[in-house]
Amino acid sequence: LVLSTCMLVILLHGVEPAVPLEEFYPFGLDEGDSQTIEQDDGGSGLVAISVAFPFFGERHNGLYVSIDC
Description:
This protein has 69 residues and is an alpha+beta fold. The protein has one domain (2-67). The protein is 17% helix and 28% strand. The protein contains 1 helix and 4 strands. A hairpin with a 2-residue loop joins strand 2 (47-55) and strand 3. Residues 1-17 form the signal peptide. Keywords: Signal.
């Protein structure tokens, strides 16, 4: 019963098409982004951001970018 209900929802909803890149926020080296060295378990230093965000009860105005190839 659960499987048939899931299938019905999928069939009624349909498959969503992919979002074209033109609709994304501009990104890339031409937009002023930086590129990190690609290495397994690598990452960036602290990256300052312009808008602080709340996380676990504290506001943060920086983040780290981690790479796990």
